[in-house]
Amino acid sequence: QQQVKQSPQSLIVQKGGISIINCAYENTAFDYFPWYQQFPGKGPALLIAIRPDVSEKKEGRFTISFNKSAKQFSLHIMDSQPGDSATYFCAASRGTGTASKLTFGTGTRLQVTL
Amino acid sequence: SAVISQKPSRDICQRGTSLTIQCQVDSQVTMMFWYRQQPGQSLTLIATANQGSEATYESGFVIDKFPISRPNLTFSTLTVSNMSPEDSSIYLCSVRLAGVGEQYFGPGTRLTVT
User: Fold this and answer.
1) Which DSSP letter does residue A69 get?
2) Is B10 contained in some domain?
């Protein structure tokens, strides 16, 4: 199975709150898990990525949590801001070499309200 | 990271015509990809653009419809041939950097076929 299941489809969070987006995968060979942020009319931008040798990676207000046994990973946005309103995509791949391809989740549209 | 530019940024084309999209990267990269993103949807890989050889197409995409060129390590083109309204979409160029394997996306070309 190559699918990556992402939830929720949409999310509304108040300013200052925590946004949580979840992804689950089936292929145990996946070992690279990036998250992308996409604003309307723009290409996806690489936000943060994790490999399964760590359970958590933090960059500023963005944190990836990774649960290898459950085959799940999630993105947490702390102190969410209106400027974080965008569509977020999780992805997974087996390695990052010439033969690897990213499998994308279906996306989560995040809206941060004042 | 990599800076990727695409031309044109958008176009409106008539049914039956063809459009060539250009992708330029600011550094030499090993892997270049072309994706399609329908409005409000996730990203679908069309093909991997191989330097000096024929592109590798994903299931459901064929060379006659989406011919791809990659004459060097910084440039690629995607042609959408004999267009129909179903080809209306955003087409994204993407590159993967050697070493860390991070993958970046261009700003996209928004194509509307009438």
Assistant:
1) T
2) no
